[in-house]
Amino acid sequence: MGRWPILAERKIYRKLVSVDEVISIIESYRPLNPLGELKLPLSEALGRVLSRNVYAKVSYPPYTRSLMDGYAVIS
User: Fold this and answer.
1) Degrees (nearest 5) of the Cα angle 17, 21, 27?
2) What is the pTM of this model?
3) Residue-wise pLDDT tens digits, 9-67
4) What is the distance of C-alpha 35 from the center of its chain?
5) CB–CB of 8/1 below 8 Å?
6) Which helix (H) or strand (E) holds 6?
7) C-beta of residue 2 within 8 angstroms of C-beta of residue 8
8) For 50, how many CA atoms within 13 A lie in the half-sphere containing its CB?
9) Are 37 and 45 in contact (CB under 8 A)?
């Protein structure tokens, strides 16, 4: 018996699981149906995830120009 006898009684390791079992466990937590898309005004979009890419209708500046290495955007 060691210094901590209670630890000798604990079984802290679980059995190994096959890759197929892990995949089936993960898939069981995945939603069955996608949530779909919503079209919202920008003011209501905070905290949402985009379902597709967003492109600007007009580039700003309207010409290729960068005084430094790039642009900084707070998003």
Assistant:
1) 135
2) 0.33
3) 666 667 888 999 998 988 888 776 677 888 999 899 898 888 889 888 888 777 777 66
4) 16
5) yes
6) helix 5-9
7) yes
8) 5
9) no
For residue 48, which of 58, 61, 38 has the smallest C-alpha distance?
Answer: 38
Closest CA to 27 of 35, 16, 19: 19
Phi first, then psi: what are they for 36, rounded to 5°? Answer: 90, -175
Tokens 């059995």: give the residue: 15
CA distance 39 to 66: 33
- Return the amino acid letter for 2: G
Look up tokens 């089936």; give the residue: 24
Give me the residue label for tokens 């905070």.
46
